[in-house]
Amino acid sequence: MTRNNGTKVEALLFDVFGTVVDWRGGIIREAEPFLRAHGSPVGGPEFADRWRGLYQPSMEKVRTGAREFTKLDVLHRENLDHLVKELGLDPDGPELESLNLAWHRLDPWADSVEGLKRLRKRFLVAPLSNGNVRLLTDMAKRAGLPWDCILGAEVVRAYKPDPQAYRDTAGLLNLQPAQCMMVAAHNDDLAAAADAGLRTAFVLRPTEHGPEQSTDLGPDASWDYVASDLVELADLLRN
């Protein structure tokens, strides 16, 4: 597959949380026994949404230079500590550490493994995620995600949508941005990738945020490809 100027796309780089794996369902599954055991005033869905709600603000401190680069595992744990304190819960350290590792044990969407296997026949496939290497490695081993390589945010020391995250990931693969395509279920991620010079593919995940999701229900711009899932994307790319 080539651009009009003849540049061949060699790598598909994937957002992971929400695009390849169901983060919300996984966190709800793992959090609910913990919440019941500690008499939490909220259930799994609200807990998952509130924990995820702390995700971008914690990374923004890194993006703005307010703190040095810090791995997502550490940010997730800091956010978890904040949330359980806010809810008035008093778990011990090992319980919190186990729950924090729930992000390593997320399930893939039903089409993800098949779609990645098909796409891998023609392209290099790798995550371009804000996750750290160990998190993404554990996730891949458990879920059977067939990445060609695993690159985490700490390798480029930048969090999306910082342009460095996209450009330096391409550089690690000895590719120019135009030789890479960003695959994501989030329009803002694709907009940042396009600004950094990557091609773009939107994959619809209408229940990432639950049954009342109101964002990313369709493409907001003229992305290079739009697909209902990764299997359809493989069909569109003729794999």
UniProtKB/TrEMBL annotation:
Pfam families: Hydrolase (PF00702). GO terms for molecular function: (S)-2-haloacid dehalogenase activity. CDD domains: HAD_L2-DEX. InterPro entries: 2-HAD, HAD-like_sf, HAD-SF_hydro_IA, HAD_sf, PGP-like_dom2, S-2-haloacid_dehalogenase. It is an enzyme of class 3 (hydrolase). It catalyses: an (S)-2-haloacid + H2O = a (2R)-2-hydroxycarboxylate + a halide anion + H(+). Signal peptide: none annotated. Gene3D superfamilies: HAD superfamily/HAD-like, Putative phosphatase, domain 2. Keywords: Hydrolase. Its EC number is 3.8.1.2. It comes from the Bacteria. Catalyzes the hydrolytic dehalogenation of small (S)-2-haloalkanoic acids to yield the corresponding (R)-2-hydroxyalkanoic acids. NCBIfam families: HAD-SF-IA-v2, HAD_type_II. Belongs to the HAD-like hydrolase superfamily. S-2-haloalkanoic acid dehalogenase family. This is (S)-2-haloacid dehalogenase.
